[in-house]
Each structure stands twice: as C-alpha cells, then as structure tokens.
Amino acid sequence: MVLLILATLLGLTATFSAYGKLSMNEKAAEMLHHIGLDERQIRLLGTTEILGSLGLLLGIWIPLLGLLAALGFVVYFLGAAAAHFRAKDGIKEMAPALLLFVISLVVTVLQFAR
Cα(first)–Cα(last) distance of the chain, in Å? Predict the structure, then answer.
C-alpha cells in the first residue's frame, strides 16, 4: 500500500513538473535556463518525466517496469540536485529535487522488495 501511495505521488509530481516544462511555463523555463539548459533540453526532460510516470503507473502490473522507472527517477532527480549544486543554488532551490530523489529511492527499494 505504501508503494502504491508513494509511486502515485511521485508519478503525479513528475507529471505536473513535465507539464511546466513541455508548456514552457515562464517560471519553470527561467529556473531551467538558470542552470544552463536550452529549450530542447527542457522539453526532453519533460518527456522523460512523462515516460517515467507512465512506467510507474504500468509498474503496478509489471513490477520490473515499475522498478526501472523508479531507478530512472533516482538518477533523474540526483542529476537535478547536482545541476542546482553546480549552479551554486541554495538548499531552497535544491529541496524539491532532493525530496523527490529520496521518494524515488524509497519507491525503488519498495519495488525491489516486491
């Protein structure tokens, strides 16, 4: 049950984040440009988040896919935190990526234990 709740939370959060990237929301685009990304890279990240969310959803029935999607999010959000660190952002800017990294890690462990 915890796996289902956390995977759903992670998938919904990533989908919401993807919407901001794919629609080139002004606030999201400004922050991503700040860390050195161009529009093509921003859209690629949004697409990656959508695909990861779908992987988590399908992972309810296909455990291996759920595990791989969760692992992908671990790498994705660790990379996001590293990009903020490289841009010399503070903890306030890094916090969402770090929190989602931790949730992704927990989902990965729970998927692996299935």
Answer: 11
